[in-house]
Specification:
The protein has 3 helices and 8 strands, in the order βαβαβββαβββ. It is α/β, with parallel strands linked by helices. The chain is elongated.
Amino acid sequence: MEPIEMTLQITIDCAEPQRLVRFWAEALRYVPQPPPEGYASWRAYWEALGVPEEELPEGAGDLPESIEDPKGVGPRVWFQQVPERKTVKNRVHLDLKVGGGRDVPLALRRERVDGEVGRLTALGATILYTMDEPDGMDYYAVVLQDPEGNEFCVV
């Protein structure tokens, strides 16, 4: 069997794609993904592909609904508008790893994590709780929510 080429896209269901594009582009240091060359918007591109109008909610694709790593290393993230609101805890979440791992002294990891948490809360994230294991576990992370309530960790 011939190996297939695969890329990874993370899709996040949401009510307001533009709100999350702004937040996560800043949070991940990504940029909004422009529409393909030759198209004024993603909506125009999707229409040209033949996506039925009933599958395109009002305003869908008028502005970028996905973000990409400007370095081309990380996965594309698409914020898919859905009618239902988030009602339970995520089954998948993102870990923003800024601490440097257990080889870095705990005090420095805390400083790095807390600095990033400060940046993210200024962008609109909400702190849920801190995971601080003082009894020899040497672990420190902060669990936050994005503006629509999706949980993620800063480690």
